[in-house]
Amino acid sequence: MAQAANLGFPRIGARRELKSALEAHWRGDLDEAGLARQAADLRAAHWQAQREAGIAVIPSNDFSLYDQVLDMTALLGAVPARFGPVGARVSAAQYFAMARGVQDAPAMEMTKWFDTNYHYIVPEFSRGQQFRLAGTKPVDEFLEARALGIHTRPVLVGPVTWLSLGKGRDGVEPLSLLPGLLPVYAELLRRLTDAGADWVQIDEPILVTDLRDDQRAALRDAYATLAGQGVRILLATYFGALDDNLDLALSLPVQGLHLDLVRAPQQLGRVLAAGSDKLLSLGLIDGRNVWRADLGAALAQAQAAARLHGPGRLQIAPSCSLLHVPVDLEAETGLDAALKGWLAFARQKLAEVATLARALDEGEEAVADALAGNARAVLSRRKATRIHDPAVKAREAGVAPADLRRASAYPHRRAVQDRRLGLPAFPTTTIGSFPQTPEVRRARAGHRKGLVSDAEYDAFLRAETEACIRRQEALGLDMLVHGEFERNDMVEYFGEQLAGFAFTRMGWVQSYGSRCVKPPLIYGDVSRPVPMTVAWAAHAQSLTDRPLKGMLTGPVTILQWSFVRDDQPRARTCRQIALAIRDEVADLEAAGIKAIQIDEPALREGLPLRRAERDAYLQ
């Protein structure tokens, strides 16, 4: 029979309990034992929620107090020397110091996890690097779940992905460390086997990237070693297609293979045609976005796989860990019913997984009501007039190649700008926003709660803006900014003023550690009903004779830091946002703003994982 499986569950808690516990611990208000108790309570609740949703294969060791890559680094004893010697296990103080830094020991580097908005702590490797088990977290959490009557599948970051994501110091090539690393992984698998685990999920998302020859060789060596440790291995790939790495993945001596069929549905046919005898985990439910799945279409894929591969060798799963989506849609009480009906957060996605698995096993009639309700929601979204704006579509379709090029060359524009602004050869400015001080945050919170009137809040912001201008003048800066005190977030501020956006109340996802973000929802065609920043920019410019920059967030960053509609190509949505920002630029120019800064911090993170796809993205 086909099984409903999950690859990972959000760890922060439905009410961000993990954030509260971590920050209390860091403040000294919650001791290590108290933090451990609260973490155990969260894990128990998450396992129970998955069991109640009908998930047969429930992950363990997907929970982390900070980051799963950091967990692996600590488990393997790969603690940089600046954090002190490692005893029998890495201490909680060392663990958090690696992530956050302490006096005289700066934190390890942090960067984005593949092309997601989640951050991981980058492993560091030095000459003479040694590995050993410096903890028992995967075994402990497996036994913890078993004590609750829940048999789990432990999750590990794979050795080749872990090494590939790390950085060598003093000329150390991370993959050269594989021979010393594999015995430690093998020991861990044996311990999990002894504890009663029958399957282990090993995540190797590096397989969906352009692999070097040494990485391919490392994968072969790694799984030749790990295959004989007594536990069956599900090799989990996600965030894209295996493509030229498909034959390699199928050749590895593992018992199961997980495929991302949301990002790369086309790879299922190739895998089935290969005639592999591996268990196939079909990632049919989007683990990175918040829209309800089209269960009819997903079921058709699953049924095709069952006919060719046999339902007994299939699992139905999300495309990747559900770490990247909010916990529970039921917490959203402020969304209108129609929009809410198009959404699915982690708990709802588990229900979708279970529905597909049951339909495959027992027939569609067993889940007829769920399938019918899903079909109605999918049709409602497809036909909703609020999603589609004919004027926006016509304008976007009318963008010609000439519109994508500047009318004059940069040297000419530079000469005109120099004459107009009269700036020195090396003008001074700042990057943009000034600190959101406690006073600014209190005023904003009071305004939102109705404790500060509109007039009082406006007067406060004007005073802060003028003080910011005067401070820059006193410092002798040449190009000023207005401080952006009126803005709560560089994406949310614009999204709140653009058509096609909606916002949740509890749609939090983990960015790193205790840092959670609440991405906007882009549900429909995007346009700019009214100017967004002109009034504040013009007011600030009126306070000074020096040129002042207009400050805008760019379309790629707005796109990357939102949950984006999946019913049209992302490029179309990005162009719609770009047209709205273009209108804002024109209005700023008309208001006398002579310089405009457009911030695109997410430009790099949106770059496709495959080099062959990057030119199209950059165009």
TrEMBL record:
Give the enzyme's EC designation. 2.1.1.14
Q: Which pathway?
A: Amino-acid biosynthesis; L-methionine biosynthesis via de novo pathway; L-methionine from L-homocysteine (MetE route): step 1/1
Top EC class of this enzyme:
transferase
Alphabetized InterPro entries for the sequence: Cbl-indep_Met_Synth_N (IPR013215), Met_Synth_C/arc (IPR002629), UROD/MetE-like_sf (IPR038071)
* Keywords assigned by UniProt, alphabetized: Amino-acid biosynthesis, Metal-binding, Methionine biosynthesis, Methyltransferase, Transferase, Zinc
Question: What positions does the domain Cobalamin-independent methionine synthase MetE C-terminal/archaeal occupy?
Answer: 426-619
Question: What GO MF annotations does this protein's record show?
Answer: 5-methyltetrahydropteroyltriglutamate-homocysteine S-methyltransferase activity; zinc ion binding
Q: Which residues form the Cobalamin-independent methionine synthase MetE N-terminal domain?
A: 4-305
| Key word Zinc present | yes
- GO biological process, any: methylation
Task: Please verify whether the record's keywords include Zinc.
Answer: yes
Give cofactor(s), names only.
Zn(2+)
> In this record, what's one Pfam family?
Meth_synt_1
Give the protein family. Answer: Belongs to the vitamin-B12 independent methionine synthase family.
Q: What does this protein do?
A: Catalyzes the transfer of a methyl group from 5-methyltetrahydrofolate to homocysteine resulting in methionine formation.
UniProt cross-references to NCBIfam families, sorted A to Z: PRK05222.1
Protein name from the UniProt record: 5-methyltetrahydropteroyltriglutamate--homocysteine S-methyltransferase
Q: Which organism does this record belong to?
A: Paracoccus versutus
